[in-house]
Design a protein that fits this description.
249 residues, alpha+beta, TolA/TonB C-terminal domain, 3 domains, 3-stranded antiparallel sheet, elongated, disordered N terminus
């Protein structure tokens, strides 16, 4: 009787151990499945390196500024892209105050460089009206390292002077032309960060007052590539420009 009694408990213990083993295998399999699922989610949530397409509303870019590669990103071997949004005025110039970052990958490396580059863009705008919601993507890639424009360290000065983009031939006043009067006007003005002329004044004119109005009108239509310091466009005050009126020989 004692042998049968022990055999019974041995059987119970055997079934109990077998049950514990099955439960452990089930739980272990569930943990593995959860872990693999977590890895799949992590992989799918990695940053998207392919940027969205440009959206220029039919405008054709006449000048695209090459952005400088930020030195920190270059040293760390980081690539990425930035999409900026802005408005384009009637003459095809980007309105600097409207530039904003829509999306960027990765965050925090290329934003300012892209905004500075967008300020220097120019479009062919044949519609004759300001167009909003223009979107453009600047890419930062390290494959062709020899062609990369690298942002300089802070102790190096990068400087580019104003570059005239548009030359204006002023109209000849009818009265002056009929009377055979020739002359010149020197104007003074400021050039803002977008290369547009502001605050035009007369410095000198000969003969006085004859060509002043035409000089003021012509000066206001001048356009410049803005002065660049450290990849940022800056305002330039007190620029002087001379217009001449000469009759044909």
């Amino acid at each position: 009787m004692r042998i049968n009694h022990l055999t019974k408990w041995q059987r119970i213990k055997h079934y109990h151990n077998h049950f514990i083993l099955l439960v452990s295998l089930f739980l272990l399999g569930g943990c593995v499945a959860v872990d693999e699922g977590t890895r799949r989610v992590s992989a799918s949530s990695s940053p998207e390196l392919t940027p969205p397409p440009n959206f220029t509303r039919g405008l054709i870019a006449r000048r695209v500024a090459e952005p400088l590669y930020p030195l920190r990103a270059r040293n760390l071997g980081i690539e990425g892209w930035v999409m900026v949004e802005f408005s384009v005025d009637e003459e095809g110039e980007v309105v600097g105050s409207t530039i904003r970052t829509v999306e960027e990958q990765p965050l925090g490396y290329f934003r300012q460089s892209a905004v500075n580059a967008a300020r220097r863009m120019m479009f062919d705008n044949t519609r004759g009206e300001t167009l909003d919601d223009i979107r453009y993507v600047f890419r930062y890639e390290l494959e062709e390292q020899n062609s990369i424009l690298v942002e300089p360290p802070s102790d190096e000065v990068v400087f580019r002077e104003l570059i005239p983009m548009r030359y204006i031939t002023p109209n000849y006043p009818e009265v002056a032309e009929e009377l055979g009067i020739e002359g010149y006007v020197i104007v003074n003005f400021d050039v803002n960060e977008s290369g547009m002329v502001e605050d035009v004044t007369i410095v000198e004119s000969e003969p006085p007052g004859v060509f002043n109005e035409e000089a003021m009108n012509s000066a206001s239509r001048l356009r410049f590539e803005p002065r660049i310091i450290f990849d940022g466009s800056v305002r330039v005050d007190d620029v002087q420009y001379r217009f001449d009126w000469q009759l044909p020989d």
